[in-house]
Amino acid sequence: MACPFFKPLRRLDSGGWTPAPRLPLGGAWAGECVAGGAGELTEAVQRDLCNCGYARGRCDRFPASAIADAVRFSAIGGHAAGDNRLIYIFEKDHAPVEHGHIDAGHDLREPLASQARAFIESDRQRRVSPKGTAQSA
What span, in angstroms and rounded, lies between the C-alpha atoms of 33 and 59? Predict the structure, then answer.
């Protein structure tokens, strides 16, 4: 589950974890915090808190009044070209507090929209083999 205040902007390399965890956005992402705060986010903070969520009490930028601690995504339906249907679930204390469906072209608030795009990009990359052919799911 990614931090609900994390706006992913570009991929991070897969290094930095030994072994690499199963990341909620399908890979490691670098980005920015929309909760505010001064200064750049270090790569370590982005890897440990932004990408993995549940930063309440661990990150000085995390708002005490936040309704959710993390957001997770799951692809639904087929994996045909252009099929970008997702389910998102906001969680607090490891329990759902809000959920919904995301369809291609659906207007979303940030940073949820950027997280959905990152998840879709990671999912597509995961489904394509190094030779450019689709892998079986």
Answer: 11
Distance CA 65, CA 32 (A): 20
Q: What is the pLDDT at residue 124? A: 82
- Structure-token pair, residue 125: 């990359």
pLDDT tens digits, residue range 32-44? Answer: 999 987 778 999 9
Per residue, the 3-state secondary structure of the chain, as one string, reads CECCCEEEEEECCCCCCCCCCCCCCCCCEEEEECCCCCCCCCHHHHHHHHCCCCCCCCCCCCCCCCCCCEEEEEECCCCCCCCCCEEEEEEECCEEEEEEEECCCCCCCCCHHHHHHHHHHHHHHHHECCCCCECCC
